Amino acid sequence: MPRSFLQVHNVSFSYHSSTSPVINHLTCQFETGWTGIIGANGCGKTTLLRLLTGELQPSVGVLNLPAALVYCEQRTDHMPSGFRSFFVDYNPLALRLKSQLDIHEEWIGRWHTLSHGERKRVQIGVALAQEPDILAIDEPSNHLDSEAKAFLLRTLKSYKGVGLLVSHDREVLDNLCTHILYINPPECVLRKGNYSTTIADVEKERANQAHLAEQGRRRMKKLQCEIHNRARKAAEADAKKSKRGISRKDHDAKSKKDLAKLIGKDAVEGKALNRLKSQMHRLHQNQDQIGWKKPPPSGIRIQQAERLAGTFLFHIRAGQISMGTQVLEFPDLYIKPEERVGLTGPNGAGKSTLIGWLLDRMEINPERLIVIPQETDASGAEKILSRIKNLSGDQIGLLMAIISRLGSDPARLLETELPSPGELRKLMLAEGIRRNPQFIIMDEPTNHMDLPSIRHVEEALDGCNCAMILASHDKPFLDRLIHTRWIIKKSESGINQLKTV
User: Fold this and answer.
1) Would you say 122 and 116 are in contact if contact means Cβ atoms under 8 Å apart?
2) Structural domain for 225, as ranges
C-alpha cells in the first residue's frame, strides 16, 4: 500500500440540535500509522471519526479523503457488512487475519450468540480484509480479555494505511500510536508521540499554565487593592478641588482651590488610578491568553442505603447453566450485603450469561438495584434518555450534577439525540445512585469510559458499602475495589468451570 495521508482544513461540524459546534476549525494532517484520539466522553471523538471516514459531512471546511475508507463503530449490535464473505474468503490476507485474531469458521452461523469481545474481533477482521486507505476504529479493546487484546495489537501493528483510533486503553495507545490528537472543545491539538509521552507534555503545560494563572491572580488581587486605595485618594483630591460648600465671601479658600488646580498636584492621584486600571486590563488579557481554567469538581459520593437484614444478599446452590453448545458449572454462590465480587474469565466463557441468570433469581427491590449491562443498543439508549428528560427539574438537576462530576458536559448531554455509550453508562449510573442502591451489578464497567471517568467511578464505588458484582477485564480497576473473585475457566470440552477465590 503506498504512503497515505489525510488532510483536514478548517473543518467545523454542528448537529442541528446543538447550540455550539462539536468540532471547531480543525486543521491538521494525518499520515500513515496510528493516531490516537483522546478526550472526555461526549467531546466529539466519534463524530470526528465519522467525519474523517465520510459518514458525516462538515458544516464548514474541506476534507481530502481517499476512496477506500472503513469505520469500525464502537457498538457491536449489528453484524458488519461483509461478515459472511469474510468467513468464506481463503486468500492469504483473510486467512492471516482469522488466524491472528483467533476467529473460528464455526462463528459464521452464530453471530447473535457471539460474545461482544468475539464480535469486536470479527468486526476488525472484516475491516482489515478490505485493505482500506483509512481505517477508523472506535474503542477496539472494549470487551477483550488479555489474550484477545494481544491478538488485536499484533494485527493492528501490521496495518499500513492511515489509522485513527479512539481508545481509553493506555496499553493500546502506547503500543500502536505515533501521534495523539487531544480534543478539549473547542480546541483540537495534534501531538507527536504515544499516549504516555504526549500526556507527560500535556501535564507539564497544564502545570505551567496553572502556575502562570496563579501568579496573575495574585498580581490582580494586589493591584485591586492598589486601585481601591488610589480611587479613595483620587476622590479625596477631587473633593479638595471642589468649591461646593465654600461661602461666596471666603475668597482665601477659593484661591487655594484655584491654586491646587493650577499646580495640578491633585491630578496626580487620578492619573495614577488610570495607569493602574490600564495594568489591570492588560492582566485580564494575559489571563485569557494563558487559557487555563480551573478543573470542575469531580468524584461522586453514593449515599448509603439501609443495611439489608440477614447474613447473605442471596445464596444459590451449586448447579449448571446451559449456554447453547457450552455449559457453565458453578459451586454454591452467595454474596454478603457489603461484599464486592470481581467476575473474570475469557471472552465467551459465560460471564454475561451468569449475570443474567442470577438477576432472574434475585429477590431485591428493583428501585435499590443498579444494573448496567455490557452493551445497550440504540433503541434502549433512546428510552433511557427519554425517561431521564421526563424527570422533574430537581431530579434532573441532581443527575446532571453527578454527570458533571464524572467529566461530561450536562448541557451538551441533554441536547444530544443519542448519547455516546460512555455517556449512557454515566447516565445509568447516575440514575441508580439517585435511588440509593443496595446492590450494583456492572458488566464491563470501564468500557467506553474515558480515563478520568474511570477514576471517578472507581472513587465512587470504593466509597460505597453496598454489594457489587463487577465483571471486567480491567485488572487495576478490580484490584482496587473487590474482596472476592469469581473466575470462569473456559474448556475445550464445552464444560466451563466457575471457581470462587
Assistant:
1) no
2) 216-290
Does one domain contain both 356 and 487? Answer: yes
Element (H, E) at 25: strand 23-31
pLDDT tens per residue, range 196-229: 999 888 888 888 878 787 887 888 888 888 888 8
Ranges of the chain with pLDDT below 50: 1-2, 259, 262-263
**Residues whose CB falls within 8 Å of the CB of residue 215, separated by 6 or more in sequence, listed in order:** none
Smallest Cα–Cα separation from 52: which of 163, 131, 142?
163
How would you class 452 by CB atoms within 10 Å of its CB: exposed for 0-12, middle for 13-18, buried for 19 or more? middle
Interacting residues of 290 by C-beta distance below 8 A, sequence separation 6+ = 209, 212, 213, 216
Q: For the sheet containing 60-64, what is the strand order?
A: 23-31, 5-13, 60-64
Q: Which of 275, 290, 305 is the last residue of a domain?
A: 290
For residues 338 and 312, is the Cβ–Cβ distance under 8 A? no
> Side-chain half-sphere of 332: how many Cα atoms within 13 Å?
5
Mark whether 240 and 328 lie in a shared domain: no
The three cell numbers of residue 265 are: 498636584
Residue 220, classified by CB atoms within 10 Å of its CB into exposed (0-12), middle (13-18) or buried (19+), is middle
Find out whether the peptide bond into 186 is cis, omega within 30 degrees of 0.
yes
Query: Would you say residue 299 lies in a domain?
Result: no
Query: For position 263, what pLDDT does the model report?
Result: 45
CA 68 to CA 339: how far, in whole Å?
A: 51
| Domain stops at, among 225, 255, 290 | 290
- Please indicate, yes or no, whether residues 170 and 33 belong to a single structural domain of this protein: yes
Interatomic CA distance for residues 306 and 367, integer angstroms: 13
pTM of this prediction exceeds 0.85: no
How far is it, in rounded angstroms, from Cα 498 to Cα 116? 20
Cα–Cα distance measured from residue 223 to residue 229, given in angstroms and rounded to the nearest whole number: 10
Q: How many domains is the chain partitioned into structurally?
A: 3
The Cα–Cα gap between 321 and 330 comes to: 8
